[in-house]
Amino acid sequence: MAVPDFQSVMLPLLKVLGDGEEHSLHEVVSTLADQFDLTDEERRELLPSGRQAKLANRSRLGQDLHEEGGPFGEHRQGKVPDKRSRPFSLER
Fold first, then answer.
1. What is the mean pLDDT of each run of 10 residues along the chain (92 residues)?
2. pTM: predicted TM-score of the whole model, two decimal places
3. Domain regions of the chain by residue span
4. Which residues of 40-65 are buried (b: 16+ CB within 10 A; e: fewer)?
């Protein structure tokens, strides 16, 4: 399987972040890579710039939303989200 696009990553990412616990970007990327059954080579696949792994880049969007006070609320640097975050639910 190829590294999924942003849209394919978003729901699994929100489910990982929705547990109310604190997660490092590395932990989130590793969890998503496991969920998508990515090979080691796919996990290391870089963007065309050669500066960042594709999956980390796509997972970073969730952290960026968090840092901007998006659905995940306040944060500590490098962690997304923590128990102090306001509740977020995927339920309608």
1. 89 85 88 96 95 91 61 53 51 55
2. 0.69
3. 6-76
4. eebbeeeeeeeeebbbbbbbbebbeb
